[in-house]
Amino acid sequence: KLEYLVHWKGYPREEREWLSASELRNAPQAIADFHHKHPAAPRPMPTMRLRFQALENLTVPT
């Protein structure tokens, strides 16, 4: 589960909290800015791009 450490503006560092990517859906620009500054940081995996293909059973009964 991907989480971001959020620093709230106007609050002390002690008020930072970890929030999941799904909890930050209303902050796409903040997420984009973060990834622009930290390109090697993990990103959410777009599930719509995943394609599953059924595999044939290649075992031969003996």
UniProtKB/TrEMBL annotation:
Residue ranges occupied by any Chromo domain in the UniProt entry: 1-46
GO biological process per UniProt: chromatin remodeling
Pfam families membership: Chromo
InterPro entries: Chromo-like_dom_sf, Chromo/chromo_shadow_dom, Chromo_domain
Protein name: Chromo domain-containing protein
